[in-house]
Automatic annotation (TrEMBL):
One of its GO terms (biological process) is lipid biosynthetic process. Gene3D superfamilies: alpha/beta hydrolase (3.40.50.1820). InterPro entries: AB_hydrolase_fold, TEII, Thioesterase. PANTHER family: S-ACYL FATTY ACID SYNTHASE THIOESTERASE, MEDIUM CHAIN (PTHR11487:SF0), THIOESTERASE (PTHR11487). Pfam families: Thioesterase. Belongs to the thioesterase family. It comes from the Bacteria. Residues 19-228 form the Thioesterase domain. This is Surfactin synthase thioesterase subunit.
Length: 236
């Protein structure tokens, strides 16, 4: 039986599409609360709750990419059938891409994969695991209240350390291009996509890679308006 509690609750009765959103480095499903609130009625936006954070704070964090992908794939596959978009920010985008490949190998259908701010399987980098705060500050620019609260910062860095281990343990589980469209949201000032470099996606998006540029940095808040605009254009 797959793990319980992976997804934030949402009434899907009126939805024509399910959007499962995996947060980025050290973040939790709460970052997608605003997106879920403003999304059109036809889009059921649900955040992915990673072990070790938020409502799952008492569970051990996952430190291995293959384990995270396998467990999340099982959780997605166990949901009732529905047209589904997998969305991921930062490292979450790479995880969702590999979840999509795993689901397709199992014969499950998907609509698309939406990735925010990740250079792709061929552009995945190794991070210095001994400097989680430095990586977090460079990519996320955390609000001052987190940095001023030792207890809150320790809690956040627990997730960051786990995510760095996940990122550093990544090797592609398959080299078969994904047969579903990939949409990449690329910020103008995102250090993960310098100069809009897309070479890391070459040969992986078999059904096409469509880039959605936006003005902003690596943080999800900058990409949210572009994501919301695309959600509103989905067929009802």
């Amino acid at each position: 039986m797959p793990d319980a509690g992976w997804f934030s609750p949402c009434d899907e009765a009126a939805a024509t599409c399910r959007v499962l959103c995996l947060p980025g480095l050290g973040a939790g499903a709460a970052v997608f609360t605003g997106l879920a609130r403003r999304a059109p009625a036809g889009a059921a936006v649900r955040g992915v709750r990673v072990p070790g954070r938020e409502s799952r704070i008492g569970q051990p964090p996952i430190h291995d990419f293959a384990e995270l992908t396998e467990r999340l794939t099982g959780a997605v596959a166990a949901l009732p059938p529905a047209p589904t978009i997998l969305l991921g920010h930062c490292l979450g985008g790479l995880v969702q891409f590999e979840v999509a490949r795993a689901l397709r190998r199992r014969g499950h259908d998907l609509r698309e994969v939406w990735v925010i701010g990740h250079p792709g399987p061929g552009g995945a980098v190794k991070f210095p695991a001994d400097d989680p705060l430095g990586v977090y500050q460079a990519l996320v620019a955390p609000p001052p209240e987190i940095l001023r609260s030792p207890g809150l910062l320790d809690l956040v860095l627990r997730g960051v350390r786990a995510d760095l281990d996940v990122a550093n343990s990544y090797t592609p589980a398959s080299h078969v291009p994904l047969d579903r469209p990939v949409r990449l949201f690329a910020g103008s000032d995102d250090p993960q996509l310098p100069g809009g470099d897309l070479t890391g996606w070459a040969g992986h998006a078999g059904a096409g890679l469509e880039v959605h540029p936006y003005r902003g940095d690596h943080r999800f808040a900058g990409a949210e308006p572009a994501v919301l605009a695309l959600l509103r254009r989905l067929p009802s």
